[in-house]
Amino acid sequence: ERLSRRIGGDNMGGDRWLPGFGSTTFYQHYKEYTVPAFRTWVSNNPEKSTVHNYFLLVLIEQGIIGLLLFLLLVGSLFWYAQKIYRQTTSPFWKRAVAAIGAILWMQCTVNFLSDLIETDKVGSVFYLCLSFLIIADREIKKLMNR
Questions:
Q1: pTM attached to this predicted model
Q2: Which long-range contacts (CB under 8 A, 24 or more apart) does 116-124 make?
């Protein structure tokens, strides 16, 4: 069934890649884009689950512009983390920023295989990582100005 939804999602993303289908509309539209050969006993999808790939889901719902903005945000976070890591000489801040970078990497990996940002509400951890990087940057600048 995951393969069926992934094929449906791929077809949806290719069909309306520029505007997308709109927020939370995957369930309403995906069945017409699936391939009947992959139908299983759970194809009626009573739990209304999605494509199991957050990046693809963003493309489907928000179009290519939404996906590019999300990828820009994620890429910026990784760039920011490595910038802070290279700036500091403090072992504590190096470890802390490396841990935040690892958490972000794990979230991206998991969201490539699922859509946990919306279903399990781990989006707050993503934004906590962002806020921690900002705090770390400020604290490191204070240390460097002493």
A1: 0.83
A2: 116/54, 117/54, 118/50, 118/54, 119/49
| Residue pointed to by tokens 């934004």 | 127
How far apart, in whole angstroms, are the C-alpha atoms of residue 20 and residue 51? 14
Which pLDDT does position 120 carry in this prediction?
58
Structure letter (DSSP) for residue 45: -
Q: What is residue 79's predicted lDDT score, i.e. its pLDDT?
A: 97
Q: Can you count the helices (H) and strands (E) in the chain?
A: 6, 0
Q: 95 near 44, Cβ under 8 Å? A: no
Cα dihedral 130/134/136/142 (nearest 10): 180
pLDDT of residue 65: 96
pLDDT for the residue numbered 121:
65
61 versus 121: the higher-pLDDT residue is: 61
Structure tokens at 97: 């920023």
